[in-house]
Amino acid sequence: MPDLATLGTIALMASGTYLTRILGYLALRNRTLSPRMRHVLDSVPGCVLISVIAPAFVSDRPADLFGLAITMLAATRLSILPTVVIGIVATGLLRHVFGG
């Protein structure tokens, strides 16, 4: 069972992701965007996701570090949704195997 701080962090990150999508749509709905600007806006959800997993970079738990390495490898080959699924499943299985 996650603690209150974890649930609050997840809710705030989800709200941040949702707000960036909605505010971007409302502010830019009648404008033509350059390909570079589109690429920047497409990268925003990934940046929010990185802020969630960044604490794992300094983790002292082997399961988290191996899960992070698997996620980074998946991110080099796949889009964001399969990468997130692979990262969650791999880290869950590794935590089960290594404990913690």
Automatic annotation (TrEMBL):
Chain ranges passing through the membrane: 6-28, 40-59, 65-94
Keyword Transmembrane listed: yes
InterPro entries (UniProt xref): Brnchd-chn_aa_trnsp_AzlD
Keywords, comma-separated and alphabetical: Membrane, Transmembrane, Transmembrane helix
Name of the protein this chain belongs to: AzlD family protein
Native source organism of the sequence: Comamonas resistens
